């Protein structure tokens, strides 16, 4: 309450200040320099009024406003931290993040939120060729038509850094964008983003496959 009275006093003094200024204008008795000087003074007054207002200037600062004297309020009962509890699954599906118990941080997911089937891959290929090839081209080397016509060339997917990147990283790039590349969250629904990630993985594999990974019956057909 004391703080409120302070505020009130400040408003009163502001009012006085304003009257003083207008009187000066009315009388036109004092030159422009004096009026400018008055503004400087009233400016100080304004600044102080804002400076002295009741506020929690620093986190965890004490406050006389609450009975317990704490400026930062305790969490309302039943609050669940976003990065914990039942939302962990959402974090994986919709944000491509996994909770890391060791660091208590969310990190880019190293897994897909649902098993990827051949149908998912087919859908991912289709979506990729609609939304991504204009810049990244169909093989993912970054020479799409838009890049060839002057837009920044995207990096090729076929480089060690992006081969090592986890699925959640690609998901995040699709959802939020990266550098000059816009995010595709408004155009591409959650599940399709994952299908595109899976297809990008397949593309990467297609350019960097180890013959030893082939099943024996196919390995024989290699020329
Ligand atoms: C309009 C052009 C354009 C489209 C369409 C586009 N991208 Fe990009 N993308 C870029 C550019 C340019 C970069 C590099 C951005 C930068 O470095 O500023 C990039 C970067 C990336 C990267 C690399 C991030 C890194 O760490 O280097 C990934 C992965 C990626 N895009 C995935 C996609 C996927 C998946 C799609 C389709 C959903 C897509 N992009 C659609 C232009 C585009």
SSE blueprint and pairings:
Elements (H helix, E strand, L loop, with lengths): L1 H26 L4 H20 L36 H8 L1 E4 L4 E4 L9 H14 L1 H4 L8 H4 L11 H5 L2 H10 L13 H18 L8 H4 L4
Antiparallel strand pairs: 1-2
Helix pairs in contact: 1-2, 4-9, 8-9
Bound molecules: heme C (HEC).
Short overview:
The chain folds into 2 domains: 1-74; 77-209, Cytochrome c-like domain (Cytochrome Bc1 Complex, Chain D, domain 2), CATH 1.10.760.10. It has 10 helices and 2 strands; from the N terminus they run H-H-H-E-E-H-H-H-H-H-H-H. The protein has helices at residues 2-27, 32-51, 88-95, 118-131, 133-136, 145-148, 160-164, 167-176, 190-207, 216-219; strands at residues 97-100, 105-108.
Give the name of the CATH superfamily of the largest domain: Cytochrome c-like domain
N-C termini distance: 87 Å
The small molecules bound here are: heme C
In the CATH hierarchy, the architecture of the largest domain is: Orthogonal Bundle
**Quaternary status:** single chain
The structure class reads: mainly alpha
Task: Kindly describe this structure.
It is built from 10 helices and 2 strands, in the order αααββααααααα. The protein is mainly α. It has 2 domains: 1-74; 77-209, Cytochrome c-like domain (Cytochrome Bc1 Complex, Chain D, domain 2, Orthogonal Bundle), CATH 1.10.760. The protein has a two-stranded antiparallel sheet. The longest helix is centred in the N-terminal third of the chain and has 26 residues, at 2-27. The chain is elongated. The site of heme C has 20 residues, from helix 5, helix 8 and helix 9.
């Amino acid at each position: 309450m004391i703080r409120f009275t302070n505020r009130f006093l400040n408003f009163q003094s502001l009012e006085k200040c304003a009257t003083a200024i207008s009187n000066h204008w009315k009388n036109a008795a004092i030159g422009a320099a004096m009026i400018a000087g008055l503004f400087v003074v009233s400016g100080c007054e304004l600044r102080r009024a804002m400076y002295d207002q009741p506020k929690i200037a620093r986190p965890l600062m004490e406050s006389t406003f609450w009975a317990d004297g704490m400026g930062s309020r305790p969490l309302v009962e039943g609050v669940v931290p976003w990065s914990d509890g039942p939302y962990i699954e959402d974090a994986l599906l919709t944000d491509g993040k996994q909770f890391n118990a060791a660091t208590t941080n969310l990190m880019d997911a190293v897994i897909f939120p649902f098993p990827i089937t051949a149908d998912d891959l087919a859908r991912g290929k289709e979506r990729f060729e609609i939304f991504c090839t204009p810049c990244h081209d169909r093989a993912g080397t970054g020479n799409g038509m838009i890049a060839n016509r002057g837009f920044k060339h995207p990096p090729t997917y076929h480089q060690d850094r992006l081969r090592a990147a986890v699925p959640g990283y690609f998901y995040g790039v699709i959802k939020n964008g990266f550098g000059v590349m816009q995010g595709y969250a408004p155009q591409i629904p959650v599940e399709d983003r994952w299908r595109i990630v899976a297809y990008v993985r397949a593309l990467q594999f297609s350019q960097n496959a180890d013959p030893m990974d082939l099943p024996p019956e196919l390995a024989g057909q290699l020329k």
